[in-house]
Amino acid sequence: SSNQMWGGRFASGPAAIMEEINASIDFDRKLYRQDIAGSLAHAAMLSDKGIISSEDRDKIAQGLKTILGEIEQGQFQFSRRLEDIHMNIEARLADLIGPAAGRLHTARSRNDQVALDFRLWVKEELQRTDTALTGLIEAFLERAGEHAETVMPGFTHLQSAQPVTFGHHLMAYVEMFGRDRSRVRDAIERLDESPLGAAALAGTGYPIDRHQTAAALNFREPTRNSIDTVSDRDFALEFLATASIAATHLSRLAEEIVIWSTPQFHFVTLSDAFSTGSSIMPQKKNPDAAELVRAKTGRINGSLIALLTVMKGLPLAYSKDMQEDKEQVFDAAESLELSIAAMTGMIRDLKVNAQSMRAAAGSGHSTATDLADWLVREAGLPFREAHHVTGRAVALADEKGCTLSDLPLDALQAIHASITDDVFNVLSVEASVASRKSFGGTAPDQVRSQIAWWRERL
Ligand code: ARG
């Protein structure tokens, strides 16, 4: 049989394989709420402008509300033959209210309809992401407050560099997730224009009011160019780019959790709730949630690249290629939501092994920079010379198998005569951390003021 929507010029129906490659209902059914909201706003506007009668508008509204209930109660029969969510709903509307259903699509195309539905969905998803990131940031602020004075080794090249506080390290992630949240908010701002009324690509001859439907659907304003409106998917790309960057931050953190929770580091212990065991090795407690967060980043990044690649060769305006936008976005959204939720749980539950951190912070001559700084400050050496002198002290400590602060004063004085007893005051990790009071530095008071700054911006 030929198609109920466009059967006029067709003599026969599609091949089975055509239906299979063409149908999007298996995934775009997710857009039912947005589709119905768009149709309600459109029908109300058509009636206000005298394009359809108020009786037809009421029948359409009644029918759409019935359909919404049917879908939400799982009673709706989705059909692949009807291709997508738009035609599934319209066909059911015709069953329910008869010929009036055929007036709903006046001054509208599936091209502006799908652009509308998808924008509405992405906008809501961005709002959910904003909330989720805020919850994650809260969890970090809480833990950072507890550990503003907990000393750990800071790393570069994953080699001990200088001691920092665990609170400071956690606050580094707050900055990242804070930027992610602001990218999410920027994306909402740019996306906040209604596509409805762009029609197929050229606009319409009917006297529609796009400002009315934009306002009814809570958009700031209608889009300005109808060709762009049905061609544009950069709101989806921006969601995916934002999601990829956030996922990349989550992945780095996940990687650190994997490292920190090894018996060799023993900086943190994951709660049982966020670990798994081994079916063979009874001693194991594995950081699977962190590993999966790290892996989902690959999926999310893949979605971004997939959609960029779909879009890059498309001439204006609509091409069916663009139907491939949705699965990428849905999959990335689900992965990101899960990742943020799992990470929030892991951070909230994380047991911090302060003693192991403290012990590691004291190894690897992590206060060597403090010795060099002392030589600059107290003995007036140029920094480059102080660096060299300190390097010799480090070599000596290595030779003796001890720490810098274990070196006897006369051994240090043999390296540079100006060194006095006072130097031992700067060689402890606590002294090192406390001295780094520069704005944004690791000293506990700096960390506390970073936390306070963020608390005001939650
Ligand atoms: N299912 C389609 C999509 O997701 C809806 C738009 C179809 N428009 C068209 N001209 N075939 O893109």
Automatic annotation (TrEMBL):
Residues covered by the Fumarate lyase N-terminal domain: 10-302
Gene3D superfamilies: Fumarase/aspartase (C-terminal domain) (1.10.40.30), Fumarase/aspartase (Central domain) (1.20.200.10), Fumarase/aspartase (N-terminal domain) (1.10.275.10)
Listed InterPro entries: Arg_succ_lyase_C, Argininosuccinate_lyase, Fumarase/histidase_N, Fumarate_lyase_CS, Fumarate_lyase_fam, Fumarate_lyase_N, L-Aspartase-like
EC number in record: 4.3.2.1
Subcellular location(s) of the protein: Cytoplasm
Chief location of this protein within or outside the cell: cytoplasm
Record GO biological process: L-arginine biosynthetic process via ornithine
Keyword terms: Amino-acid biosynthesis, Arginine biosynthesis, Cytoplasm, Lyase
Pfam families: ASL_C2, Lyase_1
Domain Argininosuccinate lyase C-terminal, residue spans: 365-434
Pathway: Amino-acid biosynthesis; L-arginine biosynthesis; L-arginine from L-ornithine and carbamoyl phosphate: step 3/3
Catalysis: reaction(s): 2-(N(omega)-L-arginino)succinate = fumarate + L-arginine
Source domain of life: Bacteria
Any one annotated GO CC term: cytosol
Keyword Translocase: no
GO MF entries: argininosuccinate lyase activity
Record family assignment: Belongs to the lyase 1 family. Argininosuccinate lyase subfamily.
NCBIfam families: argH
Protein name in UniProt: Argininosuccinate lyase
Native species: Georhizobium profundi
Name of the gene encoding the protein in the UniProt record: argH
